[in-house]
Amino acid sequence: MAETAELILDGKSITLPVIEGTEHEKAFDIGKLRDQTGYVTLDSGYKNTGATKSAITFLDGEEGILRYRGYPIEQLAEKSSFLEVAYLLIYGALPTKAELDNFSGQITKHTLVHEDMRKIFDGFPSATHPMAILSSLICALTGFYPQSVSPDLGPEEMELNIIRLLAKMPTIAAWTYKNNMGHPLNYPRNDMDYCANFLYMMFSFPTEKYEINPVVVSALNKLLILHADHEQNCSTSTVRLVGSANASLYGSVSAGINALWGPLHGGANQEVIEMLEAIEKDGGDTSKFIAKAKDKNDSFRLMGFGHRVYKNFDPRAKIIKVAADEVLQALGMQDSPLLKIAQELEQAALTDQYFIERKLYPNVDFYSGIIYKALGIPTEMFTVMFALGRLPGWIAQWKEMRENKEPIGRPRQIYTGELERDYTTIDAR
Ligand code: CMC
């Protein structure tokens, strides 16, 4: 007999179906609860709410497990390429050689952006954060491809939108940086692979030859893979929610970019480096900052620590920590003072009762910023790098939501405001 849960309300029993996932996660289906009882559930921050069924990413926060379409993140980070992982997330299976060649070839064909896009850059004040420019320009793609906003996209049109977005995002991302620096914008190089081309557009100048460093390419590939999806996190839920209103892929991803920008989410990688630099500037005393993080009267948090879901360790952080050591070694930067401060901070926090009791461990952002810095990526661009990595996940989740014809997302609330009262004219208030 199928498992059910019983809810007793005012002496009346209500039976709730139990839904079980393939990894045996269980949920009560409360879809009919309001109709049956007049009650809704309240779950601020969605800590216990399954917003959807999804076959893309499995995450077990207690065990520190992360798998894309069943494949462990550790294996993908070691053996795969970013585009292969993108294909896996979006289409559900690892590609054959022919499929991957075709996918990469399609992406390569679409790397250029419309020349009018360059003019949009001119309108942004020079202090504009790259994430603001990125989200604006991704949304602006709807202007260049107006058919992309149709709610009735056929599979071929959907495919083309996906390819365009994967192809153009690195170009737009690199240009946000070049534009802010006042450097000439580099056109993509289609003889290079995805990561190498991005680095070329970021760092080359028309005046000199740009040498691609394979250590840097390989580190970037790994970082993008580790960020590629993370089930129903804040930005992904945003992409699905916006998309559930039948908004376009570009509009939905643009909204996700804004969610990711928040310092409690993807913006944390920028904050980590800024925090490490502040500690260094202050004389390097990590205990002072640990004390600040523990002080409930101080809003300071140890950036790069803690996670809503991982309560033992973040498997991505484990991989990134090893990668950071390798990259710094390979680039001769193993004595970096920021790395030393990061290591001290990690040690201090991992042995401190406050952090132990609350299960606060380094998360993916703690070490990613150190690698980005070693690769020469400017701090302001860190969250853009996260967005570049998360893009296949957003696309896969948007596509799944569309293909499953999920209803528009529309949460309920518990109203706590004024009871009905009559309007008074301004002179009577
Ligand atoms: N430093 C100090 N105290 C912390 C921290 C921290 N980084 N994180 C959580 N706490 C404390 C918090 O004050 C609370 O203490 P108490 O129980 O005494 O009130 C307790 O730990 C639980 O925290 P919470 O805010 O209820 O936990 P949450 O699940 O709502 O928040 C989080 C998760 C990631 C937003 C939070 O840990 C945080 O702000 N971390 C720093 C920002 C960060 O690194 N974000 C990147 C997350 S990983 C990348 C991504 O996927 O977005």
UniProtKB/TrEMBL annotation:
<protein>
    <recommendedName>
        <fullName>Citrate synthase</fullName>
    </recommendedName>
</protein>
<keyword id="KW-0808">Transferase</keyword>
<keyword id="KW-0012">Acyltransferase</keyword>
<dbReference type="InterPro" id="IPR002020">
    <property type="entry name" value="Citrate_synthase"/>
</dbReference>
<keyword id="KW-0816">Tricarboxylic acid cycle</keyword>
<dbReference type="GO" id="GO:0036440">
    <property type="term" value="F:citrate synthase activity"/>
</dbReference>
<dbReference type="InterPro" id="IPR016142">
    <property type="entry name" value="Citrate_synth-like_lrg_a-sub"/>
</dbReference>
<dbReference type="InterPro" id="IPR019810">
    <property type="entry name" value="Citrate_synthase_AS"/>
</dbReference>
<dbReference type="InterPro" id="IPR024176">
    <property type="entry name" value="Citrate_synthase_bac-typ"/>
</dbReference>
<comment type="pathway">
    <text>Carbohydrate metabolism; tricarboxylic acid cycle; isocitrate from oxaloacetate: step 1/2.</text>
</comment>
<comment type="similarity">
    <text>Belongs to the citrate synthase family.</text>
</comment>
<dbReference type="Pfam" id="PF00285">
    <property type="entry name" value="Citrate_synt"/>
</dbReference>
<dbReference type="InterPro" id="IPR010953">
    <property type="entry name" value="Citrate_synthase_typ-I"/>
</dbReference>
<dbReference type="InterPro" id="IPR016143">
    <property type="entry name" value="Citrate_synth-like_sm_a-sub"/>
</dbReference>
<dbReference type="InterPro" id="IPR036969">
    <property type="entry name" value="Citrate_synthase_sf"/>
</dbReference>
